[in-house]
Prior knowledge:
This protein has helices at residues 14-28, 46-51, 63-75, 86-92, 94-103, 131-136, 149-161, 208-220, 238-247, 263-274, 293-299, 304-316, and strands at residues 11-12, 32-36, 56-58, 79-85, 109-113, 142-144, 166-170, 175-176, 191-194, 199-203, 225-229, 232-234, 250-258, 278-284. The chain is of the alpha/beta class. The protein is globular, with a radius of gyration of 19 Å. It is 39% helix and 20% strand.
Amino acid sequence: MPPTSVADRPRFDCRDAYVATLSELAHADHRIVGVVNDSVGSSKLTSFRKSFPDRLINVGIAEQDMVGVAAGLANGGRIPFVSAASCFLTARALEQIKADVAYSNHNVKLCGMSPGVAYGELGATHHSIEDIAWLRAIDNLTVIVPADPIETSAALRWAAEVEGPVFVRVSRMSVPQVNADDYTFTPGRAVTLRDGDDVTLIANGTVLWRALVAAEQLEAEGVSARVLSMPTVKPLDVDAVVAAARETAGIVTVEESTIVGGLGGAVAETVVQRHPARVTILGIPEFAPTGSAAFLLDRYGMSPEGIAASARDLLRHD
C-alpha cells in the first residue's frame, strides 16, 4: 500500500492548540495574562476567560491601547499574551509594537490571530498579508509562523519561557499535522521535512503542507525536492538557506503573505549576499480580492500543483 499523502491527514484549527497551551501555561505560572481587543470569541478564549476571569483583560476595539496595556503589564512583572486579529494588531498598533514593546524590550507576546487570507470573504481590509514584512523590519522582535498545532503549541511554550518580545502567527485555517508529536521549537532553526538534491522548497505556516504535497508530486516525476520548514522568519536560519542554495539548483519560497519583505524576501536577501542562486518567491503580489482562503492561495500559485509547477520552471531555467 502506498504511503498516505500529507493532504489526506486530519485537519486542525491551530487556535485550539493556542488556547489549550495558553491555559496550561497560565495554570503553571500566575504571571501569564491575556489581553484582547474584544476578540475573545474569534481567539477561542472563552474557556480561558472561565478559568481565569481576572487574568483576561478586554480593552475593547482599541488595538493601540491593547498593546500599550500589555507593555505596562510586562513592566509590572506579568507575561501578557496579546491576542487579536493579525490585520488589526499589526496595522493599527504598529507604532506601539515598535516603541512600547520592541524598543522598550518589554516581555510581551504578540499573537496574530487568523492571519494571511483567513478572512478571505471579508476582502483586502481583513487580509493580513503585510504583517510579516512590517514586523520583520522591527529590531528586537522574534517573528514566528507555525505550520500546525504541534508547532503552534511548541512556539508558545518557548515564548513563555524566553524574556523579550515575540510575535506568533496563529492560524484559523485547518491544516494537517506535519511535525512529529515530540517536536521541539528552536528559534532560528529550519526543519528538514524532506531531503532532496534537485530543488528546495522553503515554506511555513498554512502553506507548508501544500509544499510537502508538491514534493510528493515531484517525486513521482523523478524530481528530488528538499522541503525546509522555516517557522522563524526572524531570525532566519541562514545556514540552511545557504546550504540549499549551494546544494540544489534553486529555491522556491512559499508563504501566506505578500511577496515583498516576508519569508521570500529574507531568503532572497540571504542568497544574494551569501551564495547567489535562483529564487522563486510565491506569495500574494497585490490587494487580493474576496474569496475563500483556499481559492486565494490557489489563485496565486500556492496549490500543490502550482508549487510543483514553479519548481519545474526553476529547474528548466537552471
